[in-house]
Amino acid sequence: MNVHNKDYWEKGEAYNDYVIHELEDNRKQAWKERIKSHFDNKDPMKILDVGCGPGFFSCILSEEGY
């Protein structure tokens, strides 16, 4: 998968595969840790992800109970 290829993004045929790859990659855990470092974790939170595109951050935050 060459995500730097202009045709890849213009056709969009493999976009879903790209998102799935990101959700299965070890970077997901790094994002979780980075984002959660900004939360005080004292109170339960509800998060609204507006304009979330494929929902990558919505998915990983929902895995953490938000």
Account of the 3D structure:
- This protein has 66 residues and is mainly alpha-helical.
- The chain has one domain (6-63).
- It is built from four helices and no strands.
- The chain has helices at residues 6-11, 15-24, 27-36, 56-63.
- The protein is elongated, with a radius of gyration of 14 Å.
Overall mean pLDDT stands at 79
**Element-by-element helix/strand order:** HHHH
Structural class, please? mainly alpha
The dominant shape is elongated
Biggest sheet features: none
Number of strands: 0
What is the beta-strand fraction? under 5%
Q: What is the CA-CA span between the terminal residues?
A: 31 Å
Q: Using only CA atoms, what is the Rg?
A: 14 Å
- Uncertain segments are none
Number of helices: 4
| Number of separate structural domains | 1
Work out the helicity level: 40-55%
Task: Give a short overview.
The chain is mostly helical and 66 residues long. The protein has helices spanning 6-11, 15-24, 27-36, 56-63.
List the keywords.
66 residues, mainly alpha, 52% helix, elongated
